[in-house]
Specification:
six-stranded parallel β-sheet, 328 residues, alpha/beta, 15% strand, five-stranded parallel β-sheet
Length: 328
């Protein structure tokens, strides 16, 4: 019997984007044992995925040798390294077997950033790049969106919160203003203007995100916020109930796609060639065709050109129009 390990330690978006491969493996090999290995913090992203046999968590500060020891009894016949990090490579060494990885295309990315010349060739989204690790397992992408499956407790809590707040799910717009790096953040004033537009037409904006986004949420006056209050699964449940989601190039964008929510994605320093645009589902990508893009692989603390036009020039009115068109 096939026993397949899928290893992706982090982060939110990257983990969710592996799920089209998980789905394809289950359909092609219905009797296989599929074990997903990720950091403890990201387990909720795949814990309720029906295609997986089990999820194994890398605990905080756990040595890779200890993780390998815990995985040995599973006797994996195949290992899919979907991370390509030093730790995942160490796991491959410590847990012998038939391991395969995928090309991260770092050289093409670095060349595009430094010279603006595109060496990528074919436009392959990251969810489909992961399939390179499983070519020998006879699976193909189906083009459908990722899957972020929400458990009953999270759905119940969010439904109770909506009732307590007196909100109709059909009128909620989830806004995700946070990002790990400053150049990926749409200006707070733009978020406030968008929130005002939404409110004026009877839509209730709700800010989502982690604890680190609370300060940014506080800059947007008069808007409800669950940043740092809801868990990953609860945030996913709220996204699933939202009329529309507006997000930068962050994990929340992929969470929204994973629960079937329409998403307006705001792209600044990063570009399509990197492979992280919303995959499948209903989405509108707003960006500006500036000669300085892309300027970094994952965003940075400041705009190297000093103007941040890639996001500053995307007007709240444009975002509101895109949201209306997606929501119907």
């Amino acid at each position: 019997m096939l026993s397949i390990l899928l290893v992706r330690f982090s982060s939110i978006g990257d983990v969710i984007l592996t799920t089209p491969l998980v789905r394809a493996l289950r359909r092609r090999h219905p009797e296989a044992e599929l074990t997903f290995v990720t950091k403890r913090a990201f387990v909720p992203l795949v814990s309720d995925n029906p295609h997986l046999t089990r999820v194994v968590a890398l605990e905080p500060d756990e040595p890779i040798r200890a993780l390998a020891h815990r995985l040995e009894p599973l006797a994996p016949t195949h290992g899919l390294d979907l991370h390509g990090s030093l730790r995942s490579r160490a796991l491959r060494f410590l847990l012998p077997g038939q391991w395969r990885g995928y090309r991260k295309r770092k050289l093409a990315r670095a060349w595009l950033i430094s010279t603006k010349l595109d060496w990528y060739g074919a436009d392959v989204p990251v969810p489909e790049r992961y399939f390179e690790a499983a070519r020998h397992l006879d699976v193909r992408p189906d083009g459908a969106a990722p899957e972020f499956v929400i458990g009953p407790p999270a759905r119940t809590r969010v439904d109770e919160w909506l009732r307590t707040e007196g909100l109709d799910r059909r009128t909620v717009a989830a806004l995700a203003p946070g990002a790990a790096h400053a150049t990926k953040r749409w200006p707070a004033a733009h978020w406030a203007a968008l929130a005002g537009r939404l409110t004026a037409r009877g839509v209730t904006p709700v800010i989502v995100g982690g604890a680190a986004d609370r300060g940014l949420a506080a800059q947007i006056d008069g808007v409800r916020s669950v940043a740092g209050t809801f868990s990953l699964q609860e945030t996913g449940a709220l996204l699933a109930r939202a009329r529309v989601v507006v997000s930068g190039d962050t994990g929340v964008m992929h969470m929204a796609s994973g629960v079937g929510a329409p998403v307006v994605a705001l792209f600044g320093p990063t570009v399509r060639q990197f492979g992280f645009l919303p995959y499948g589902g209903r989405a509108a990508v707003l960006e500006r065709p500036l000669d300085c893009r892309p300027c970094s692989a994952m965003g940075s603390n400041r705009c190297p050109m000093g103007h941040h036009r890639c996001l500053d020039d995307i007007a709240p009115a444009e975002v509101d129009t895109a949201a209306q068109q997606l929501a119907g």
